[in-house]
Each structure stands twice: as structure tokens, then as C-alpha cells.
Design brief:
Distance between the termini: 21 Å
CATH class: Mainly Alpha
CATH superfamily: DksA, coiled-coil domain
Number of helices: 5
Low-confidence stretches: 131-135
Number of strands: 0
Order of helices and strands: HHHHH
Length: 135
């Protein structure tokens, strides 16, 4: 983290916190909408209506899962800031450039280290397994 100035860290922290707040607001609104829709949903008339309803619910839960994973990534980045390890590649221990962090503030590896890990079949990727587990 020493390669990042206090101003750069503040900018990245603000970016992470704004995205976290937006996701939390979105999740809250989706929950409110889902409850309202469940209360308004009449009995399903036929198999096609039931299938359409089930497909809509699946799409909703898929998006919610994506948002949950992204929220976990943001929380992990903020925790790394607190711990002093933010901006340091978890694969090579090199500094992650500010420009990369600006474009992806949850980045856990440099572009080069990430590309090398992907060439090796994903072994050692700091984020692949964690994303599936929601960390």
C-alpha cells in the first residue's frame, strides 16, 4: 500500500464505499419489490404461467447472487485497506498500479500475474475460488 498516496487511497476507498452503498440500496429495493410481488401474485393459471414465473425468479436469484459476490469483493478490499495489504498483488507481492485499482478497485493481482495464473489454468488465482464461495 506504500506505493499509493493518501489521496489515491481516499479516492479508492470512496469508490468502494459508494459502490457498496449502491449495491446495498439495490438489494434492499429488490427485497421490497420481491415481497410486494409475492403478495400481489395471483394463483398461477397454467404450466406456461408457472414456467414463466419460475424463470423470472431464477433470473432474479442469479442477479442477486452476482450482487452478493460483488459485495463480498468490495468488503474484502476494504478489509485489505484496513490491514494495510490493499494494492499488493497476492500472487507476486508486487504493487498493483493505481490505474488498475481505479478501473477495478477490488483487484487482488497485477494484470501480468493474473494473466500468468490464467495461462497456467487458473491455479493460484486469488479470486476464482473465493468468488465461488462468496468471499
Amino acid at each position: 500500500m506504500r506505493h499509493l498516496s493518501p489521496e489515491q487511497l481516499a479516492t479508492l476507498r470512496d469508490q468502494l464505499e459508494h459502490e457498496r452503498e449502491a449495491l446495498l440500496r439495490l438489494r434492499h429495493q429488490e427485497t421490497v419489490d420481491l415481497v410486494a410481488a409475492a403478495e400481489e401474485t395471483p394463483d398461477v393459471g397454467d404450466r406456461q404461467d408457472a414456467a414463466a414465473s419460475e424463470a423470472a425468479q431464477l433470473a432474479h436469484w442469479t442477479l442477486a447472487d452476482h450482487e452478493r459476490v460483488r459485495l463480498a469483493e468490495i468488503e474484502a478490499a476494504l478489509q485489505r485497506m484496513q490491514a494495510g495489504s490493499y494494492g499488493v498483488c497476492e500472487l507476486s507481492d508486487e504493487a498493483i498500479p493505481f490505474a488498475r485499482l481505479q478501473s477495478e478497485p477490488t483487484a487482488r493481482a497485477t494484470v501480468e500475474a493474473q494473466a500468468e495464473a490464467e495461462r497456467e489454468g487458473g491455479r493460484g488465482r486469488p479470486d476464482a475460488d473465493d468468488r465461488r464461495r462468496g468471499y
